[in-house]
Amino acid sequence: MNFKLLATSMAVALALSGCATTKNNEASQTAAVASNNKVFSQDYVLEELDNGLRVMVVKTDYPDVVSLQIPVSVGSRNEVEAGKTGFAHFFEHMMFKGSKKFPQDVYSDILKNSGVDNRAYTTNDYTNYHLNFSKEHLDKVLEIQADIFQDLTYSEEQFRTEALTVKGEYLKNNASPVRKLLSAVRKEAFDKHTYKHTTMGFFEDIEAMPDQMAYGQEFFKHFYKPENVSLVIVGDVDPKETIAMVKKHWGAWKKGNYSVDIPKEPKQAAPRYVHEKYDGLPGHWLLVSYKGTPWIPTKKDRSALDLISQLYFSENSELYQELVVEKQIASQMFTYNPETKDTGLLHVFVKVDKESDLAVARDAINRTYAKARTELVSEEKLAALKSNLKYSFINGLDSSQAIADVLASYMHFERNPEVINELYASSDAVTAEDIRRIANEYFVDSSRTTVTMSALDKVAGFDKEVSLENLVAQASKPTERHFKVLDKSNASPLVDVNFLFYTGAAADPKGKKGVAALTAAMIAKGGSQTKSFKEIQKALYPIAGSFSYQIDKEMLSFRGRVHKDNADKWYALVSEQLLNPGFREDDFNRLKKELIDNIKSGLKASNDEELGKEVLYSALYQGHPYASYNLGDLSDLEALTLDDVKAFYRAELTQAKLNLGITGALNSDVKAKMLTDLARLPQGNEARLSVPDAPVLKGKHATIVEKSAQSTAVSFGFPIDTVRSSKDWTALWLVRSYFGEHRSSNSFLYQRIRQVRGMNYGDYAYIEYFPRGMFQTKPDANLGRSEQIFQVWLRPLRSNNDAQFASRVALFELDKLIKDGMSSSDFEATRNFLTNFVPQLVASQDRQLGYALDSEFYNTESFVEYVRKQLASLTVEDVNRVIRENLQTENMHYVFITGDAKDMQARLAKEQTSPMTYNTEKPAELVTEDTEIAKYPLGIPAKNIEVMNVEDVFK
């Protein structure tokens, strides 16, 4: 099982003890939490309908919001036919096409007006559909989803178009080293079982998908039946009324009778090794994987294997400290143990810079497994791990959606949350002797598969591996306070603290770009004067305390969370990090290397989408404090010294710039000490950075970044004067949502580029900085800026031609929006969506605190009230005036990330036409529009087109 979820399983198990499953016509039972262990205080109801559908309802005290999760027991595991992989994931996409009663445009419009956040994901063993919305829409959402599940309707054109989108998603994902490693190891480790392929499927099968509509219909008919489906409903609901709604809409669904035989995997007889070549990949990757155990929660094996993973290979392990922190052989090391119904794989990933260090890391992993097989872990360490799991669960379960997420991830096994109770009982019973016994059973040479990956054809000398069996055989003075405090204390057992300084990358001196980020890293991820970072991690571990940082142009946030019972221990540790940083040379070298690697490998090498957005910001802000990347420029980072960090710390982390946010039931004594201690910071006299206006953009420009890429990412935009405190901000925010709501299928651009034409994976617009967009669905707090841009983000396209055409579509539609404005119906629908959706942006305690601090920065009311009040007073005339005053297409900067810069440069300079072709017949109206768009001028003069190699970006 995934060890992150083990923490969840333990606490949910405690919370859900005593639950009984009801079947057929028996009365539904209510499960009460044991009074002596209320880590999860809500009751729940679990009932099975006559047709086999399982329904679980949890009433929570989080107001208004409801989370509906629909786990379906079908994943890539069920794809047993040769040449037919990827269909479980494909139908995750197709389920958004609607039904006869609720065609896609109809149900999308209903959900948008209701502010429904509607998404899905696919795993090895199940597919989950999750929707979050206000409680008054529950009945309608259940009705719509029930109709789609029972009467999914789509045309051949829609089927074939979506197949193109899936192919684009595969190409996008294929840029990730971790995904490529997982694909390689599964293909090598399995001979018969369907775990041989990932949830995306084999590429050749994806390419054949457009012609597989008949098979797709059979696949859906077989697996989308009530006996495979659960409904998990968590939120501000009445359980009896909710069950009645479910029966009304889902009760008539007919039960199926299909079953599938999953091929049995033969026992692996010898260790396996494969090298995966990845052209242009910086550094070298190692993946060591072992065969694990099938899902049997009543046995200790699964829990023990995950405990071993954490004890020996997590960030708190001795091996991590050796390879990453102390010797700095590796820049990354992490584990991944996905929960699978049948025997899956347990993974350890390591990234190194030198080829020779691959063998060093592999041998260190072998020695560690040998240690697990020969030595007994201390009972104290094992107890500390179990304590960490309990408090990690409490810290993370802070919304109805979080509760529903966890329950949905377990319902697919036996469609019964009692497996969580069983899993926790097994975990709690694991002893040090069990750890050693189970390690000896599973971590043997014959069950290991190793993968290396780099730009090299092969790894020299890697075949000289040491046998694991052989290794086993060998065996402060308070002063006046000058900072602001936002105290949002409440009764929550979770305590969140945010030390927000109004400084950041915009304060980096010339020639020292990156010093703000490095200083923040030294505080949050380095030691204090009294303790090493390793010692701090060890002390935080049993209490599941966190302390991290986020760096932006004008904000530097240090955030922490802990259970109220352990707040004093947590504060004693992190206060020393913040107020008395150790500033050790070894921490400095480690963290500087980590930042450099983040730029080279995390951004430039493997994240074309974020790279394009960051290059756009840099291009628009040349000569401005915003010009450099938040983590710095590579040459500046290389030259930074520890004295540079110390100087930045003294100058910028002052009381004048500090805004302290507190929420939760923080002990008054701890709070008083915190306020006293922070007064020891230098007083300072600058409350926030003075940021000049953005450079004036004149004309149309393009930056083309060439790198090894199979697709082309596009971003374009221009500076705007409207920020969150501006009178027209909410109106422009509404326009942005209509035109390109982030990761939403309801947005206009998404419909025109992704949905109708199947060109890419999504198309979005922004008026505020939104980093990490490919990893999350909602913006982070504490990214306040005095200057913003209007930006359009087109997720990677299949070719330069597609990228040019998609850019033309976006420009074409933007020109129409500026000329014609929004219609009254579009305005009303978008306003309704945002009015209902905005509470979801602050649905958890830490986000509430973060947004409250942002409101202080912008000097506005609290975010939800601010937005809703302005939305209520808006008219479509206001919005169209704001469009005319803020949006334009005459002064624009485009960024293209591509594998063929010369071709893209020629296309733009010559205004080359970009005709579209499809794998299916399209409506005549669309074909006519495509002909016009294919030659729609982007209007970028040749002299304004800059081509650069990715190696020179942020250099």
TrEMBL record:
Swiss-Prot/TrEMBL keywords: Signal
Matching InterPro entries: Metalloenz_LuxS/M16, MPP/UQCRC_Complex, Pept_M16_N, Peptidase_M16_C
Pfam family, one: Peptidase_M16
Region forming the signal peptide: 1-20
UniProt domain Peptidase M16 C-terminal: residue ranges: 217-389, 640-832
GO molecular function: metal ion binding
Keyword Signal among record annotations: yes
Superkingdom to which the source organism belongs: Bacteria
Residue span, Peptidase M16 N-terminal domain: 55-200, 489-628
PROSITE patterns: PROKAR_LIPOPROTEIN (PS51257)
Species, as recorded: Pseudoalteromonas xiamenensis
Family designation: Belongs to the peptidase M16 family.
The keyword Protein biosynthesis is assigned to this record: no
Protein name: Insulinase family protein
